[in-house]
Amino acid sequence: xxxxxxxxxxxxxxxxxxxxxxxxxxxxxxxxxxxxxxxxxxxxxxxxxxxxx
Length: 53
Fold this sequence. Notes:
The chain is mainly α. The protein is built from two helices and no strands.
């Protein structure tokens, strides 16, 4: 999806940042599971997402 008038460099930067956050979130979630033996709940996933960002 594109926003009219948005610079392509900004769009590319945003997409790259999202990919980096996804990779970081995966690693943080793996460490959480190793420590707690379960996946985080909804609130935990939200907090891990903030950490990843």
